[in-house]
């Protein structure tokens, strides 16, 4: 078992990577044909109700283990799925609290006056455990959606508790949120999904407490024969601000999980080793906790 705590030097991190790789080679059911594996921290995982139809909680753990995913940030609709995974393997799963429940979903959560109370209640109920490291993933489809009384209260709640907002939105709603609470810490889902590299760079420069995960961006990062030059320049300009994500929002994403991780590994292998290590694992571990890591 690997234990990581506090600041870690690049030399020691490389030794730990070697140890993780050796563990992966000795573990049952390794990934066939996979590149030598950096540890991965998946910062966009869902285990919502319908997922149990295709993958059990223990199968989720086995799937992550086979793919060298040592930790994962997980939110679910309803929240029970995240808590199920965390209770089964608290060393691996870091829950964040999604505001969706019942008839309250992506299109109306920001308008429901009961949303802040629901979130505050769940956070207070489990604050002693300290398990929730953020609120989200939630959707904002328009800048006006980020200006409601609900969002003002949620943003204030996040700052007071020093936890992240995991936001699925374009650049403009994210900018509105920072306008509400400049001290917010935001994890930008899919790095805006379709936001151009030039706009991402502008956002990173303007908002030092903005981090981004790269689910759905892997194919764009790759180019024929190597890395997309614009993406390579961006990732190397801000190597401490990007992380890996898969987004298992639907059942087919669980079926494709190994391929999604391997896609990320392909472009990570084309980056300098220190930058690749930060994006693959170290950035998320620094923000959401090193903890005691499970075996790959």
SSE layout:
Layout: H1 10-26, E1 40-46, H2 57-66, E2 69-75, H3 80-88, E3 93-95, H4 115-125, E4 134-139, H5 149-161, E5 164-168, H6 171-180, E6 186-188, H7 197-206, E7 210-213, H8 218-221, E8 222-223, E9 226-227, H9 229-237, E10 242-243, H10 251-255, H11 257-268, H12 273-288
Parallel strand pairs: 1-2, 2-3, 4-5, 5-6, 6-7, 7-10
Antiparallel strand pairs: 8-9
What does this structure look like?
It is a single chain. By secondary structure, this protein is of the alpha/beta class. The chain has a single domain (38-100, 109-288), classed as TIM Barrel (Alpha-Beta Barrel). The protein is 43% helix and 14% strand. The chain contains twelve helices and ten strands. It has helices at residues 10-26, 57-66, 80-88, 115-125, 149-161, 171-180, 197-206, 218-221, 229-237, 251-255, 257-268, 273-288; strands spanning 40-46, 69-75, 93-95, 134-139, 164-168, 186-188, 210-213, 222-223, 226-227, 242-243. Strands 4-5-6-7-10 form a five-stranded parallel beta sheet. The longest helix has 17 residues, at 10-26. The chain is globular. The termini are close together.
Number of E-state strands:
10
Q: Which residue ranges are poorly predicted, with pLDDT under 50 across at least 5 consecutive positions?
A: 1-8, 21-35, 292-296
Structural class: alpha/beta
What fraction of the residues are assigned to beta strands by DSSP?
A: 5-15%
Percent of residues in helices comes to 40-55%
Number of domains: 1
Task: Indicate the CATH architecture.
Answer: Alpha-Beta Barrel
Tell me, rounded to a whole number, the average pLDDT: 88
Please compute the radius of gyration using only Cα atoms.
Answer: 18 Å
Main β-sheet, spatial strand arrangement: 4-5-6-7-10
Taking the alpha carbons of the first and last residues, their distance comes to: 9 Å
- Tell me the series of helices and strands, N- to C-terminal: HEHEHEHEHEHEHEHEEHEHHH
CATH T-level topology: TIM Barrel
Largest sheet: 5 strands, parallel
How would you sum up the global shape? globular
CATH H level: which superfamily?
Answer: Metal-dependent hydrolases
Task: Count helical runs.
Answer: 12
């Amino acid at each position: 078992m690997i234990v990581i705590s506090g600041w870690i030097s690049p030399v020691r991190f490389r030794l730990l990577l070697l140890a993780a790789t050796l563990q992966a080679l000795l573990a049952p059911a390794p990934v066939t044909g996979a590149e030598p594996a950096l540890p991965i921290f998946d910062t966009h995982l869902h285990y919502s109700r319908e997922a149990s139809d295709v993958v059990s909680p223990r199968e989720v753990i086995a799937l992550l283990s086979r793919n060298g995913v040592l930790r994962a940030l997980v939110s679910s609709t309803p929240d029970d799925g995240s808590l199920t995974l965390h209770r089964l393997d608290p060393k691996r799963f870091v829950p964040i609290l999604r505001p969706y429940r019942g008839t309250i979903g992506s299109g109306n959560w920001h308008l429901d006056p009961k949303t802040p109370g629901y979130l505050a209640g769940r956070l207070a109920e489990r604050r002693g455990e300290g398990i929730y490291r953020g609120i989200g993933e939630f959707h904002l489809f328009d800048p006006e959606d980020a200006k409601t009384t609900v969002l003002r209260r949620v943003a204030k709640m996040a700052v007071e508790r020093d936890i992240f907002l995991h936001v699925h939105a374009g650049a403009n709603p994210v900018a509105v949120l920072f306008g509400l609470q400049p001290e917010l810490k935001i994890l930008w889902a899919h790095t805006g999904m379709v936001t151009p590299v030039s706009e991402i760079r502008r956002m990173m420069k303007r908002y030092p407490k903005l981090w981004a995960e790269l689910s759905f961006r892997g194919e764009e990062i790759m180019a024929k024969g190597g890395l997309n030059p614009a993406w390579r320049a961006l990732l190397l300009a801000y190597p401490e601000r990007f992380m890996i994500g898969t987004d298992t929002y639907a059942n087919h994403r669980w079926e494709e999980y190994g391929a999604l991780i391997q896609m990320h590994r392909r472009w990570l292998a084309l980056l300098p080793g220190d930058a690749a290590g930060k994006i693959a694992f170290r950035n998320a571990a620094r923000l959401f906790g090193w903890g005691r890591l499970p075996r790959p």
